[in-house]
Design goal:
The complex is a heterodimer. Chain A is α+β, with helices and mostly antiparallel strands. Chain A is built from two helices and three strands, in the order E-E-H-E-H. Chain A has helices at residues 34-45, 70-74; strands spanning 9-16, 24-31, 53-58. The longest helix of chain A has 12 residues, at 34-45. A two-stranded antiparallel sheet of chain B has the order 1-2. The chains are: A alpha+beta, B mainly alpha. The complex binds fe (ii) ion (2 copies). Residues 45, 75, 78, 132, 154, 158 of chain B line the site of one fe (ii) ion.
Chain lengths: 97, 313
């Protein structure tokens, strides 16, 4: 992911495929400025009506958790089953809950 | 040793069919194998635009011209997706291009054959994209996440490529006697090089064992080649063309085609750079890259200027 080349910086591309849906990561492009990033993303990722909206984000602006952190990051919630609705016992016969 | 433990964990992940992502630990050979394979794949998409670009200005109708343009534009996109996937392995795009230009990196030898007639454009779409699709469908399940995602996207786009090629072949084959002859001649020249696209026999392939163990490849060269042949022979029969293999025959008992041996001397000769168009393809790519230098420089200068304007404001 080196940005030291002459092809511009890497921008990550997120596409919303229909109004109302979340933007989803599609891939990346190289560009030297934000307009170029948006145009390149349009040319590369929406040639077949794949989207209604595009976001481009400079790769350097993205902060990612690391695989080695995944234990401390994601595992503690495993024992908090009371965060799930199935944890609760409903009285016999109750409806629509 | 820590590395042995990491290696065991890595292999366990692969065996459980979990994807490896860029920031995950991976053995150095896995990384270099992928760098080589994905960049070679990217270079092939981009160099592959040349033999087809040869016919844009001579396409026989407006319809065939817009189709060919759209197809070639897709191939440019495929190259971009694949370079992006390759870059996640810690090498820049400049480095990959440098390796292509210096001859260190290869691209598929099929693109070192010329497209002499319009029927060749049909043969390329039908056979070359057809072979690529068989390979790429299998690679959708590759163990490296970014490569797998690029393959899924590419496979969606490929489906029209093969159909447009087969349509050209069918039109020629069912046309005038001269047109049929042109179609047969294209098949004669592209059949064997298309089979060579799958690479050497498994027993001769230096990389197959690791690639299978790490699930970079999910099926071997020979398995994929066989799949392609079984599908394609019937398509040739439908449009009345003859596959140029004297050993080809239908085995009724097994329900499959048997076929002859590839001329491996020709294969290695083209890989070594002695195909009909190796030099022309590379010369053209280097020239296009160098001619584009001022555009890249101007774009960077413009971006710098915008940045300093923002600082002042
Ligand atoms: Fe392609
Ligand atoms: Fe294609």
């Amino acid at each position: 992911m080196s940005n030291t080349d002459h092809q511009g910086d890497v921008w990550e591309v997120f596409i919303q495929s229909k109004p109302g849906l979340p933007h989803k990561h599609a891939g990346s492009v190289h560009a030297t400025d934000k307009e170029m990033a948006l145009q390149n993303a349009r040319d590369m990722y929406t040639r077949r009506q794949e989207g209604t909206c595009i976001w481009v984000v400079p790769l350097q602006a993205i902060v990612s958790s690391m695989p080695e952190d995944s234990e401390s990051f994601f595992e503690p919630s495993d024992d908090k089953i009371y965060r799930h609705p199935t944890h609760y016992i409903m009285p016999e016969g109750a409806k629509n809950i | 040793m820590e590395d042995i433990k990491k290696l065991e964990e890595f292999q366990a992940k692969i065996d459980a069919d979990l994807k490896i992502e860029p920031k995950d630990w991976m053995p150095e050979e896995y990384r270099t194998h992928l760098q080589r394979q994905i960049s070679q794949h990217a270079h092939s998409e981009v160099i592959g635009m040349q033999p087809e670009g040869n016919w844009i200005s001579r396409a026989p109708s407006l319809r065939s011209k817009v189709v060919l343009l759209a197809k070639i534009q897709d191939e440019a996109g495929h190259g971009q997706y694949l370079y992006s996937a390759a870059e996640t392995l810690g090498k820049s795009r400049d480095e990959y291009l440098e390796e292509l230009h210096s001859g260190k990196a290869k691209y598929s030898s099929i693109f070192n054959y010329p497209t002499l007639t319009w029927a060749d454009i049909g043969a390329v779409g039908w056979l070359v994209d057809g072979a690529a699709i068989v390979n790429q469908v299998s690679l959708q399940r590759t163990s490296y996440g970014p490569y797998s995602r690029a393959m899924v996207r590419i496979c969606k786009e490929e489906s029209f490529h093969q159909r447009q090629g087969y349509e050209i072949m069918a039109t020629c084959a069912l046309g005038t006697p001269e047109q049929k002859k042109m179609a047969q001649d294209a098949l004669n020249r592209f059949w064997w090089p298309s089979l060579m696209m799958f690479g050497p026999h498994d027993s001769e392939s230096a990389h197959t064992a690791n690639a299978m163990k790490w699930r970079i490849k999910r099926e071997t060269n020979d398995e994929l080649r066989d799949k392609f042949i079984q599908k394609t022979v019937q398509q040739a029969e439908v449009i009345g063309l003859t596959v140029p293999d004297p050993d080809l025959k239908w085995n009724e008992a097994d329900g499959r085609y048997e076929y002859g041996e590839i001329n491996w001397d020709e294969f290695w000769n083209v890989v070594k750079g002695n195909g009909p168009c190796n030099k022309q393809r590379m010369r053209h790519h280097i020239k296009a890259h160098e001619d584009g230098t001022w555009v890249r420089e101007a774009a960077i200068a413009y971006a710098e200027k915008q940045k300093s304007k923002q600082l002042v404001a």
